[in-house]
Amino acid sequence: MSRKPQPAQSGDRSRAELVFDRPQLLAALFGQYDQNLVALENRLGVYITARGNRVGLEGSAEQVATARDVLNDLYARIGRGEQVDTGLVDASIAMAAEPVLHGIIRADAGDRAPSIMIRTRKKTIVPRTLAQAHYMHQLTGNDMIFALGPAGTGKTYVAVAQAVAQLITGSVQRLILSRPAVEAGERLGFLPGDMKEKVDPYLRPLYDALYDCLPAEQVERRIASGEIEVAPIAFMRGRTLADAFVILDEAQNTTPAQMKMFLTRFGQNSRMVVCGDPNQVDLPGGIPASGLADAVRRLEGVEGIAVTRFNAADVVRHPIVGRIVEAYEGAG
């Protein structure tokens, strides 16, 4: 690194040095043109120098301690084969600031895999925020989970990954993905094509998550065999969904009657995840007409049912998405 030293700041300064025993991993740790280190400097206000396999840190004691934890975490992730980018740097910083996380994912685990992770055919998913860690923990131990929060927090993606993992291992026999075919100002009858062509655009985000977790040929084969079903919520009426992992996406656009119908489809040896953003309701009656908030109000605290709430700090897309969410949520 050849960046100019930052001017000394007032107050107590702390220094630390890290020595990494696998120099071949440092290019991935630093990033192209040291972009990961630059992101770390900008976010934490520390100054970082790198010489060979040694990395020096300078800043306040708290900043240096956080930067050390983040670099060790990223280094361990690279050792496990994960890809590190500035988004993961931001996520690692956020997680390092949450001391209660240490009972769920060991920060000092080194090259050992974290205790909460999801393996699929194409990738291994580990939590990027504290809320995601709690969410993934709930997915392993509860029959029904409500995931509430803004777009970009991984609500549906993590649920699909867990569903795929359970399908692969044989824990469930079917994967059922559903969402209401509701959009502002449009009705299905006015759209061209047959029923599949009408509803597929609404279900596209679910397909995208599937293709990210399974090879395309496996997705197509399992859909053809009925192991994976992607359908609008109206198609769930009258069914009992046993031996299945069932996911309802965009649940804020269900009515209370639709939500009750969907939840009561729950069958033996099944798991159900209901995802949605209570603040983004496209129903004609707005937020009061949504079945999601109504269901959470009625069911939170019931044995076997868990609720995870995400906020703008949990957005794992581009950092600007989190700032957009904060701006809208704070608007009067």
List keywords for this structure.
single chain, 332 residues, alpha/beta, 6-stranded parallel beta sheet, 3-stranded antiparallel beta sheet, 11 strands, 16% strand, elongated
Task: Note down, in words, how this protein is organized.
It is elongated, with a radius of gyration of 22 Å. Strands 8-7-9-10-6-11 form a six-stranded parallel beta sheet, sandwiched between helices. It has a three-stranded antiparallel beta sheet with strand order 1-3-2, covered by helices on one side. α5 packs parallel to α6 (155-169), α6 (155-169) packs across α7 (195-213) and α9 (256-263) packs across α10 (291-299). With 332 residues, it is an alpha/beta fold. The chain has eleven helices and eleven strands.
Brief description of this entry?
By secondary structure, this protein is an alpha/beta fold. The protein has helices at 26-30, 35-44, 61-79, 86-96, 130-139, 155-169, 195-213, 216-225, 256-263, 291-299, 319-329; strands at 14-19, 47-51, 54-59, 118-119, 124-125, 144-148, 174-179, 228-232, 244-248, 271-276, 305-309.
Give the uncertain stretches in residue-range form: 1-10, 99-114
Helix-residue proportion: 25-40%
Strand order, largest beta sheet: 8-7-9-10-6-11
What can be said about the biggest beta sheet? 6 strands, parallel
Q: Helix count? A: 11
Separation of the first and last Cα atoms: 45 Å
β-sheet strand percentage: 15-25%
Overall mean confidence score, pLDDT = 80
Question: Secondary-structure element sequence?
Answer: EHHEEHHEEHEHEHHEEHEHEH
What is the quaternary state of this protein?
Answer: single chain
Radius of gyration, whole Å? 22 Å
